[in-house]
Design a protein that fits this description.
about 375 residues, mainly alpha, two-stranded antiparallel sheet, 2 strands, about 70% helix
Length: about 375
Amino acid sequence: MNEKLMSIIVALVSVIFIFWLGHAIGLKWALMGTIGFGLGFTLSFSRFGIVFGWREMISRRSSYYVRIHLLTILIEILLFTTLLSFTHAIFGGKMVGNIMAISVPFVVWAFVFGIGMQLAGACASGTLYCCGEGRPLFWIVLVFYGVGTLISNAFKPELTAIFPGVAITAKDITGNLWSGMLLNILLVAALYFLFSYLEFKKTGNISHIFTRRHVFWKDGRFTVLTGGILIAVLNSTVVALHGSAWTVTGAIYESALRVASLFGLFGDDPRLAKPLFLNPMVGMFVAGLLGAAFSRYLTGKHPSSPASAGRICASVLGGLLMGLGGAYAACNLGGFFDGTASGSLHGWIWMVMALGGSVIGIRLRHAINV
């Protein structure tokens, strides 16, 4: 079956799925499903690699990708802050953003997530779009990510009771929402120049973002910069509709819970009494898979990951560690990007801990020849 026909089929399936979401649950779910499709497509079509960018920075001091990540966060900070100045989202939900409490489990599991994402070769959103592209190793990552969330959530109430956390926002530090935004912008700028300095010190050069010949479009697809801009806008649209931004871990957990219940596990969990797609993030996840699949067939490019024993082992362990960590600390987008953009201090702490974990994860990758 040729690529053009497959892209048409995926597009039709996507339209049917989004129409079903709107008909069966509501307009908000259909709109968020459409955004999910756009996010999956954009991630794949731009090769927006968060984990790869961090690995490049740690291993080679190449800051090109992490500086684009910071620009993405900067756009989100501006858009999120504007939206958070309202009390309610378009569909009536409270405008809260992505704010998490800082606690001992949060700090530890953010570190563990950093190890896992480097072993797996992708974070939660990266796993989503690689699965949508039909890459078998990342389906292994996804399965064990789900297993990890089930294990972590089983002990989460006890750990939360022992180690209660506290949510701290930039607004709490500075006194109001807009001065908190300025504080976050200053932190982004400081990191941007720090990473630029580290690259220059190591290589004697700084990789340019805006002065390249192909700034927004290259080789028939979006550049990483274009991807970052679109991701920031699409994610902010989710906030406008829903009151908080896109998250992946919760969708994986709820789906894994349904699968586990088929084997007689977690049968007393109250979530099982509710329709799976009532959580709009689940619909966004499925639509994101379809968006990534559409990107693959539209471009005709088929990224591959050779399945050696080392890679399979890394996929299993990486997925499991990410699931364990994500249940407490969320993922790169939900924990870091969306947290910092919402003005929550947990986003910056997540970054520091996950960077530390990434150093360990990269060394483990070398140890098992990944």
